[in-house]
């Protein structure tokens, strides 16, 4: 396989008014693109060019900081983009809704715990909903680490990603990370997250 830079699944202005078009343009075409380009440079002429990302992350402690930071940035943003959609928001349904209720008590309680994890991520990082041994867990990582990495405190399959780097929200929200998180719930693509959940379970994660 080769590592390719994916298209954004919607236009830059598709998540307005919750995430502004300028933020999306810079975030995708500059930040994400740079992680991808630097990752490709870091793995050039090595076996990692034909190693899939989850296998790379499973042994990330044995690779360079350039592979860790840029490979993470490359993957994390793909999941983040795909967890959002215009006309998103609302609540999940089906098996994911049931699992959230069973694990956290209610969707509102889940939202509260997830938002707290995102707010309390010190500096730059991501909040995650993770499937581990068939169970749902909330976690956060700093910089561009993720739960697929062998260095992560909580390891498992991420099915929902929230980027809390300032570059994800500064233009509209400045330092008000909680306001960005409140708005972000309106663009979460629960159909996609449900699909990621089903795939993770099917893979025995
Ligand atoms: Fe980002």
TrEMBL record:
This enzyme's EC code(s): 1.15.1.1
Pfam (any one): Sod_Fe_C
Family annotation (Gene3D superfamilies): Fe,Mn superoxide dismutase (SOD) domain (1.10.287.990), Iron/manganese superoxide dismutase, C-terminal domain (3.55.40.20)
GO molecular function annotations of the record: superoxide dismutase activity; transition metal ion binding
Record keywords: Metal-binding, Oxidoreductase
SUPFAM superfamilies referenced in this protein's UniProt entry, alphabetically: Fe,Mn superoxide dismutase (SOD), C-terminal domain, Fe,Mn superoxide dismutase (SOD), N-terminal domain
Catalysis performed (reactions): 2 superoxide + 2 H(+) = H2O2 + O2
Segments forming domain Manganese/iron superoxide dismutase N-terminal: 2-85
Example of a GO cellular component annotation carried by this entry: cytoplasm
Entry keyword annotation includes Nuclease: no
Domain called Manganese/iron superoxide dismutase C-terminal: residue spans: 92-195
Annotated positions binding Mn(2+): 27, 77, 163, 167
EC top class, as a word: oxidoreductase
Record keyword Cell division present: no
Family: Belongs to the iron/manganese superoxide dismutase family.
Physiological role: Destroys radicals which are normally produced within the cells and which are toxic to biological systems.
Protein name: Superoxide dismutase
Organism: Vibrio brasiliensis LMG 20546
